[in-house]
Amino acid sequence: MTIIQPKKSNLFLNAGIIFIIGGLLLSAIWLVVLYNRMVNVTHGMENARAEIKTLQTQNSELQERIFTLFDNRNLLKLAEEKSLIKDRNPQYFEVDRQWSLASQY
Predict the structure, then answer these.
(1) Can you give the C-alpha Rg of the chain in angstroms?
(2) pLDDT in tens, 70-101
(3) Cα separation, 51 vs 49, whole angstroms
(4) Do 53 and 61 form a contact (C-beta atoms < 8 A)?
(5) Which residues touch 41 (CB under 8 Å, ≥6 apart)?
């Protein structure tokens, strides 16, 4: 025999269902937040990679300019423009080692 009690509510069952639904909603919201953060991090990494590539190309271009500046032909051309001559037997200024050591103290 089944006893039906229409006005009696099961408080534990209702609270459990509400708790489970609330947990599912909060976990769904948290998953969306985590996904958005992951997408933002991925885009940030791609932007950083692109910036690194541009910096690498700028660095190689700058190195190329420096190497062409200090090329032997360019240095000879600069010396010719400044009327410099190449000295085959340079005479260096010599310093007495004994007094140069004493001057440090």
Answers:
(1) 40
(2) 888 888 888 888 988 888 888 888 766 666 66
(3) 5
(4) no
(5) none
